[in-house]
# Entry
Amino acid sequence: MIDSSGADIDDHATVARRVARSIGEIRRSPVARVPVTALLLAGSPRVCGEDPGHVRLLGEQENTLPPIVVHRATMRVVDGAHRVRAALLRGLSHIGAQFFDGEENEVFVLSVALNAGHGLPLSRTDRTSAARYILTSHPFWSDRSVATVAGVSAATVARLRKGVAGATTGTRIGHDGRARPVNSTEGRARASELLRRDPTASLRQVARTAGISPATAADVRDRLLRGADPLPDRLRRAVESAERRTAHRSTEGTGAAVGDVLPSAEVLTQMAESLRRDPSLRLTESGREILRLLGVCTAAVRERRRNGTSAVPPHCLDPLAKLMRGYSEIWQSFAAEFEQAHRARTRDPVA
# Structure
C-alpha cells in the first residue's frame, strides 16, 4: 500500500488500531473447550515467567476461570498462562479458550498488549524487555508505536533502539500508519539533485524517488529557486554537529566514545579471573558459556603479548583484521545489551 507521499506503509494501518482490531475480534469469537495438555506455554513477555503466588490465588478460587487466548496455528498461549497453571493446580483437564488466527510474528505483540490491559500487570523489567524484543521483530515501527504496545515511554524505546542490532532503519512507520524517513537529510539531497537536473519534474515523482513527502519536495524546490540551501538551518546544524563528533572520534584512534577510559590488558585479565571464580556463573550452563567466551578473549590478550603479528603469514593479515573488526562489533553489541540490562535492573531491583 502507498500513502500520499509515495512511501510504503504498513498494510494493516496503524499499530494501535491493528492491535485493537485483533483484540476486538478475539473477544467476539466463541469460547471453545481445549485440553490443557494441548497448550504451549512459551514466549511469555514475563521475564521471570508466571508468578507462583498469583497462580496459587487463582487455583484456590472456586469460580470458573475466564477464557484464555490461544494462537490457533501453534496452540501457543497468547494470554492466560497464569490461568493455565491454575487449571493444572485444580486438576482440570480442559479450559475455555478464544482463538487468535493471525500470523505467528504477531503473537508476542498481542500477548504484551493483552497482558498490559488486565490481570497481573507486567513489571517495568517485563515491559522494557518486551520493547527490546519488538524492536527486533518490528524494527520499522516508530518509537511511539513500540512504546504504546509495550507500555513504556517513547524516550525509553529510543534509548533501547541504539543497542538493538538491526533496529535502526532509515524509515519508520508512525502511530498514524504512515512511513516517514528518520532523517530527511539524504532525501532532501536526492530531491535537490533531481530538481537541478529537471526543474520541471513532478513533485510527486521527485518525492517518491527521493523517499520524502511532496511537501518536503516542494520546500526543497522553493529553497533552490531562492538560491538557498536545501537543508533548513536546524538540519544543517545537526549534520555539522554529527560530522564534528565523527571527526573527533577518528582522531582518538578508537571506536570508543570521547572521554571513555578503557581498562588496560592487565585490568581486563583481573576482571575476567574474578568473574571466573563467581559461583553464579560457574554453576549455570549459560554462565559457563559466557566464561568460555571470555576465556578466548583472555587467550587473545596472552597471544598478543607473546607474538603479536609476527606469527601471522602476510597473506592472512588483511582477512584477519577484517574478521577481528567484525567480531569486535558483535562484542560491542553484547556490551550494550548487558549495560542496558544492568541499568534496567538497577532501577527495578524487585522485578
Observations:
- The mean pLDDT is 76.
- The first strand starts at residue 32 and ends at 35.
- The CA atoms of residues 188 and 231 lie 7 Å apart.
- Residues 314-347 form the longest helix (34 residues).
